[in-house]
Write a structure and sequence with these properties.
Layout: H1 7-34, H2 42-90, H3 104-158, H4 165-196, E1 205-208, H5 209-217, H6 221-226, E2 230-235, E3 240-243, H7 245-261, E4 268-275, E5 279-286, H8 317-327, E6 330-336, E7 342-349
Parallel strand pairs: 2-4
Antiparallel strand pairs: 1-3, 4-5, 5-7, 6-7
Helix pairs in contact: 1-2, 2-3, 3-4, 4-8, 5-7, 7-8
Amino acid sequence: MKFWRNPEIKRQLLFYCILSAVLLLLSSLFAGAVTQERGLSWQIRENIWRLALLGTGLPLFLAGLFHFAVTFWRYRRLAALAGQVDRFLHDPACLDFQRQEEGELAILEDEIWKMTVMLRGQADALKEERQYLCDAITDLSHQLRTPLTSLNLIQAMLSEPALSRERRQELFRSQEALLRRIDSLLAVLLKMARIDAGAVSFRREQVKLRRLAQQAAEPLAVPAELRGQQIVFHGDDEAAFLGDLSWSAEAAANILKNCVEHTQQGGQIDVSWQENAVYAELCIEDNGPGIAPEDLPHILKRFYKGKNQGEESFGVGLAFARMIVTAQNGVLTAENRSQGGARFVMRFYKTVV
């Protein structure tokens, strides 16, 4: 039987047999000493022997029977628990720890249940991470394939001896632009990977929202001017939040860049901010065509390109901005305005959400 394969049971049985033998021997010696008294009849002496052996052997037998019955029940529960763990290892969906009892075994069962739930969560997280890594590599290869193909074509065209000077210079400029695109993509992906790995330490300092908006808009002043667009700022000068100015400005700049690229000539981009007792908020709005309804649920996902995005877009800017905001106890949302155009809201909470 499986019960007797346990070394502990064999040791207990051996100890029980030795203890029983010793107690029976002591009982027989006591009975022998009593029966040596003179004047006792044979019948009395026989009764003394029987009482001594029965008074020792019966309690020993009952105690041993009770002990091994309880031990057998306990080992059956342990075997059932081991079987549940084994079934869980082969089928994570099979998890059934439903006992509501007290005692050390119940505590052990509860701890094993917690451990198995944690292991299942880790296994699911690893599975999701593997899928995410696979998808990210696939998306990255797809994003790099187009500019690399163009670079190969340009390189082949540059090798032609009959190429004119003007055409050669044009191809060199196209090659330089493609290399800048690839360099920009790899730089953003490296930053995103650092944030994913927890290798970025965001500062916790007082950041004025006006300063954040102005710093984010500085690199986009010339592109907006070339398009005849106007970036308007308005909000409370004292509104602020605890965060990292440099990283937050980079997130806001990515959102502003998206608005500049998707707003028509002569359009307007409004940057407003406010602070209350719960959060500080920076809102960026444009009066462009807005976000397509089918793109709205996915617009902040990595490598997602909406139908209105140009060929030069990699689909990482808004996802990068969302990662920066989320890492600073914030939330980034995207929506369409009722009067037309897109609205992006960076909201930094003052308590952990």
